[in-house]
Design brief:
Pfam families: Adenine_glyco (PF03352). It is a single chain. The chain is mainly α. It has nine helices and two strands; from the N terminus they run ββααααααααα. Strands 1-2 form a two-stranded antiparallel ribbon. Helix 2 crosses helix 3 and helix 8 packs across helix 9. The radius of gyration is 17 Å and the shape is globular.
Length: 199
């Protein structure tokens, strides 16, 4: 661990401790986390997984992501929006995913809300409209925020559009994951690599 809160791996690259040891988390951190996601299906998937992650570790969700994709029709919003009670029962019997009725039903409701949003610019335009004027510059993990005024406003707007399980903390995690904010530690090899923020 350095003074900047990162861990330098055997490959010489500096990462935060959460991404330093588990190969799955390291691969996700190095290639995906914080990179811009601007397509509807990609954002719907990330929003859904962040909601399922609430109260659990991200590693748990990441390990289950292939099963989530299979269970939720590749996170195609049109397909998920058509799910009915039989699909809810099917999902609650699927050991490959997180079997939480409220989260399953929220994902279906969010698919319907995503489809409805197309008439008003779509989910990507709405989510990205909450990009802040500046991004955090954390030196240590303790300096990484868990909410922001923008994530509070995004959560409020999504709820007004019929989305569920989209609180300010979950929405800040979404904003981090899809590149709207850059919370890579200043010493990390990934800092500033999204193309959205200069540093």
């Amino acid at each position: 661990m350095t003074e900047l809160g990162v861990v330098v791996g055997e490959d010489g690259l500096a990462r935060p401790a959460w991404a330093a040891t588990d190969p799955l988390l390291r691969e996700y951190y190095d290639t995906e986390w914080g990179m811009p996601v601007r397509d509807e299906r990609g954002l719907f998937e990330r929003l859904s997984l962040e909601a399922f992650q609430s109260g659990l570790s991200w590693a748990t969700i990441l390990r289950k992501r292939p099963a989530f994709r299979a269970a939720f029709a590749g996170f195609d919003p049109d397909a998920v929006a058509a799910f009915d009670e039989r699909d809810v029962d099917r999902l609650l019997a699927d050991p490959g995913i997180v079997r939480n009725r409220r989260k399953v039903e929220a994902t279906i409701a969010n698919a319907r809300a995503t489809v409805a949003l197309r008439a008003d610019g779509g989910l990507p335009a709405l989510v990205w409209s909450f990009k802040p004027a500046d991004t955090p510059r954390p030196r240590t993990y303790a300096e990484v925020p868990t909410t922001s005024s923008e994530s509070v406003a995004l959560a409020r707007e999504l709820k007004s559009r019929g989305f569920r399980h989209v609180g300010p903390t979950t929405m800040f995690a979404l904003m981090e994951a899809v590149g709207i904010v850059d919370t890579h530690l200043l010493g990390s090899h990934r800092r500033g690599t999204s193309g959205v923020w200069a540093d």
